Amino acid sequence: KRTMTLIEKNGYPDSVYMNAAKIFQGIHTEKRKDRMLVRYANNLESPMLAFKDEYCSRVSYELAFNALKYQSLLEEILLDSSVYPCHSIPDELTCLLVVMLYDLQDRKFEARKICDEEEPVAEVQEVGHYLYSYRTKLAAALARCRIKYDALSIEYFLPETMWKQERRASALPFCVWINTYKISLEDVIRDLETKGLTKVESVSDFDRYTYAMDQHCRDVLVFPSSLKEELLNLDLFADCKLLLQ
C-alpha cells in the first residue's frame, strides 16, 4: 500500500496498463470504417483481468474510462504528431498505446518511475519507451489541439455538461470508514489532531484542515475534497486503519 501511493503520482505498475488496455478494448468507441484512421484489433472475447489488489483494480478502470472520455483527442494527437501509425506496434496494442498516451499527458510528459518490486511486461515497456521517445512531438500536438479548439485544458474537450458534472463531483466531500478491527475512533481522532486537523460539527463548517463525524454512522468520517490526495498518503490509510468509501 505504501509503495502504491507513491507510484500513483509517477505512473502505474505495468499490470495496471495491461488491464486498463483490456478494459478499454471492450468499451472504446467504434467508428465507421470510412472514418477509421486509428485501427484497433477486433477482439470479441471477454478479457481476462487479474488484479493484484483493490487499488490496482480501481486505477485500471479509472485509466480505461479516462482514455474513453478523451479517445477522439488522443487519436488526434497520435495522428497529428505522426507517432501513429507505427509498424512496430500492431493493432493488438493500439488500446495500450491510447491508454498509455492518456497517462503520459496526465503526467505532463514526464518519465514514468519504475518500482523495483514491479514485474515488467514486455508490451508495456515497448509502448512506454516508444511514446516517451516522441514526447516532444506529442506535447506539441496536444498544444496545437488546444489552440485549434480554444481549450484551456483537456477538460474542455469534453461536452460542457460532462465537465461541469465532473467538477461538481470532484468538489464533493468524501467519506472514510474507520476499520474498528485495527483502531478505535478515539485513536483516529487523536492521530488526525496531531496532524493539524480540527473536528467541526457539519460539512457546512468545513475549512481547509477540518473533518466531521457522519450524522448516522459513528465509524464514518467526512473530509473536504481538497484533502483527499494528502490524506491518502497517511499511514492510517496505508495500514488500512481508514478505508476510503
UniProtKB/TrEMBL annotation:
Among Gene3D superfamilies, the record links this protein to: Sun protein, domain 3 (3.30.70.1170)
Keywords from UniProt, A to Z, are:
Methyltransferase, Transferase
Give a Pfam family name.
Answer: NSUN5_fdxn-like
Q: Which GO terms describe its biological process?
A: methylation
Q: Which InterPro entries match?
A: NSUN5_7_fdxn-like, NSUN7
Domain (NOL1/NOP2/NSUN 5/7 ferredoxin-like): residue spans on this chain = 175-245
A GO molecular-function annotation: methyltransferase activity
Q: Which PANTHER family match?
A: METHYLTRANSFERASE NSUN7-RELATED
In Swiss-Prot or TrEMBL terms, this protein is called NSUN7 methyltransferase
